[in-house]
Design brief:
Blueprint (H helix, E strand, L loop, with lengths): L1 H17 L5 H12 L6 H5 L6 H39 L17 H14 L4 E2 L5 E3 H6 L24 E3 L5 H9 L4 E10 L11 E11 L4 H16 L5 E8 L2 E10 L5 H6 L5 E10 L1 H6 L8 E8 L1 H8 L6 H4 L2 H4 L7
Parallel strand pairs: 1-4
Antiparallel strand pairs: 2-3, 4-5, 5-9, 6-7, 7-8, 8-9
The structure holds 3,4-dihydroxyphenylalanine.
């Protein structure tokens, strides 16, 4: 009796060895048959009841060996068949298929305009100075010759940080002048592009956030003629070789004398008529000779050095460059608007 029971184990072992599942489906059948909850090895464990005591140990070891053999075969085949399936999937790849298009973004028209301006000034030796948008009162106002009780502070409605009288969103890029002069001695020749903030009503023509490019040139013997020539060069590079400029006397606390510069666009096109309010002249910047007090505030000897500075608005130039009618479009980030600039870098 025990001999036949033992021979059942041999048959089972031989059957397991003979199995040749050829794919993962067949392997699953193998698993159910030998390792599943109702597998055919299980009853052989039950047989141990009928084995005489002296053979029980040997029987137990054999039946375990059968189970282990099934387990091992399953793991081995699983690895083999899975690898084969992966290889087959790789071979299914069509190497001649066209690639997936990679969606490319586009630069923002303000960035494009700013980069144009930067390149123009870089050609005559200006370097970019980048600085913070959250600024302190000293760099934004006091250093720029605009102490606390100065009426010029009312010219720019300032966003202060909550509960602060000291920290603010810079109202102009002129704050970078102070940042640079405090740690650099002349010659200084920088432009500072960036975003500025003012508490103004949003409309088609103005916004509470906008962009400026600041310029600063400090050295021995810098004159108003240098300023004028630099600005004329800029206007011709930006608006064409025929561009005309005019400087109107103005007032800024940080420059003396001060001026505002207009570029002549004419009124031939409706857009130029609108943009220049019918005059043909577009105001694009404020400028002047750096007030000696500003130089001294920042640790520069005003008896030895002079300088000029300017600050220009970017939005108006971008409106003109790209024929856009409303400044708010720059800040809405509607992708249908932005995608139109994909061709330019
Ligand atoms: N900061 C001035 C503004 O935002 C513009 C400006 C005027 C900048 C004269 C200058 C300057 O550097 O010299 O209105």
């Amino acid at each position: 009796m025990s001999a036949t029971t033992f021979s059942k184990l041999d048959e089972m072992m031989a059957a397991i060895e003979a199995e040749q599942p050829g794919d993962l489906d067949a392997l699953e059948q193998f698993r159910i048959k030998y390792l599943g909850s109702k597998n055919i090895i299980k009853p052989l464990f039950g047989e141990i009841r009928n084995i005489p005591n002296e053979d029980k140990k040997a029987y137990g070891q054999r039946v375990n060996a059968v189970k282990e053999a099934a387990e091992q075969k399953f793991q081995q085949l699983k690895q083999q068949l899975e690898m084969a399936a992966e290889d087959a999937a790789v071979q299914d790849i069509d190497l001649t298929a066209p690639g997936e298009p990679m969606p490319l973004g586009s630069r923002h028209p303000i960035a494009l305009t700013m980069n144009r301006i930067i390149r123009i000034f870089e050609r005559i030796g200006f370097v970019v100075a980048d600085d913070r948008e959250i600024e302190d009162d000293w760099h934004n106002f006091t250093a720029m010759n605009t102490p606390e009780d100065h009426p010029a502070r009312d010219m720019q409605d300032t966003f202060y940080l909550q509960d602060s009288t000291e920290m603010l969103l810079r109202t102009h890029t002129s704050s970078v002048q102070a940042r640079v002069m405090k740690h650099t001695q002349p010659p200084i020749r920088i432009i500072a592009p960036g975003r500025v903030y003012r508490n103004e009503t949003v409309s088609a023509r103005s916004h509470c956030q906008f962009h400026q490019v600041e310029g600063l040139y400090v050295d021995e013997g810098v004159s108003f003629a240098d300023l004028k020539q630099t600005l004329l060069y800029f206007a011709r590079e930006m608006f064409g070789p025929e561009a005309k400029i005019r400087l109107r006397p103005s007032y800024f606390p940080f420059t003396e004398p001060s001026a505002e510069m207009d570029v002549y666009l004419g009124t031939d096109t409706e857009k130029d008529y609108r943009l220049t309010k019918g005059t043909g002249w577009l105001e694009i910047l404020g400028c002047g000779m750096v007030d000696p007090a500003v130089l001294e505030n920042c640790g520069i000897d005003s008896t030895r050095y002079t300088g000029f500075a300017f600050g220009m608005g970017i939005e108006r130039q971008a409106l003109r460059l790209y024929d856009i009618g409303d400044i708010r479009l720059f800040f809405e980030n509607d992708v249908r608007f932005l995608r139109q600039f994909a061709a330019e870098f």
